[in-house]
């Protein structure tokens, strides 16, 4: 077993900031035991079902699309949909189910965030509105979006920044 910090593991698996819902994830700095073999690692990270139906070359192509930092979010979304269509069944239908499930989760999280933000000060509500506007712009790369969100958050008065970030965690 390899030992890596919890921060490193979480950064590998997921982003710590969900730009669509303006939520900051808390990250543990504890040390986590990580399996050293691929078989053990697959138990930690569940492969989406649509990728389980894909061939090795199709999986590789999807991973290249997903990890391409130069694609705007809109371009990436269209390219992935195109990829699934080219793969055919059963990849396509499982990919579409995955996309719909993710959208449902995002919608649910947006409702939760709306309820939380509605209880904040008008300044924090305005800041959240600005961050969500940045996050909903699909004509930027993930890195550009993250940078723009961080820039917007850095402009906030400390009191508003802390109110927004603590409430949305």
From TrEMBL:
<protein>
    <recommendedName>
        <fullName>SXP/RAL-2 family protein Ani s 5-like cation-binding domain-containing protein</fullName>
    </recommendedName>
</protein>
<dbReference type="Pfam" id="PF02520">
    <property type="entry name" value="ANIS5_cation-bd"/>
</dbReference>
<feature type="domain" description="SXP/RAL-2 family protein Ani s 5-like cation-binding">
    <location>
        <begin position="58"/>
        <end position="160"/>
    </location>
</feature>
<feature type="signal peptide">
    <location>
        <begin position="1"/>
        <end position="19"/>
    </location>
</feature>
<dbReference type="InterPro" id="IPR003677">
    <property type="entry name" value="ANIS5_cation-bd"/>
</dbReference>
<keyword id="KW-0732">Signal</keyword>
<dbReference type="InterPro" id="IPR052823">
    <property type="entry name" value="SXP/RAL-2_related"/>
</dbReference>
């Amino acid at each position: 077993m390899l030992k890596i910090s919890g921060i490193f593991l979480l950064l590998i698996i997921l982003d710590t900031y969900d730009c669509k819902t303006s939520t900051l994830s808390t990250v543990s700095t504890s040390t986590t035991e990580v399996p050293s073999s691929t078989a053990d690692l697959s138990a930690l990270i569940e492969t989406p079902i649509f990728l389980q139906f894909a061939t090795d070359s199709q999986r590789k192509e999807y991973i290249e699309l997903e990890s391409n930092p130069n694609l705007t979010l809109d371009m990436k979304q269209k390219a992935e949909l195109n990829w699934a269509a080219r793969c055919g069944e059963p990849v396509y239908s499982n990919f579409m189910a995955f996309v719909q499930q993710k959208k449902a989760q995002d919608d649910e999280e947006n409702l939760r965030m709306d309820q939380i933000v509605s209880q904040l000060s008008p300044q924090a509500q305005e800041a959240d509105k600005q961050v969500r506007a940045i996050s909903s712009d699909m004509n930027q790369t993930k890195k550009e979006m993250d940078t723009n969100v961080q820039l917007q958050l850095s402009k906030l008065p400390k009191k508003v920044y802390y109110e927004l970030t603590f409430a949305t965690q």
